[in-house]
Design a protein that fits this description.
single chain, alpha+beta, 2,3-Dihydroxybiphenyl 1,2-Dioxygenase, domain 1, 4-stranded mixed sheet, 2 helices, 4 strands, 16% helix, globular
Length: 89
């Protein structure tokens, strides 16, 4: 796995559709609407994001499958998902 801090992400210049502006309206839609990054530690990823002012707040949640995750938005408003999956599958 590539260390979290060894790459950078360029902002996407296109604005997302209106339905993608919140998780409540984005997640129920079927299709590819965001990309995800698997990390070894969500806590370290959260600390990195907050200490570099990449997001105002980060809320780690547990999904229905037991995987922990959180979302942030890029400068254009597109969602980026961070996932920690320790299931070993």
């Amino acid at each position: 796995m590539v260390p979290f801090w060894s790459f950078s992400v360029s902002p996407i210049i296109n604005k997302p559709p209106e339905s993608m502006r919140s998780l409540e309206t984005d997640l129920p839609r079927v299709g590819i609407k965001h990309f995800g990054l698997k990390v070894d530690s969500l806590e370290r990823a959260k600390e990195f994001i907050l200490s570099n002012n990449l997001a105002d707040a980060v809320s780690i949640k547990q999904g229905r499958t037991g995987i922990d995750y959180f979302f942030i938005k890029d400068p254009s408003g597109n969602f980026i998902e961070f996932v920690q999956d320790d299931r070993g599958i």
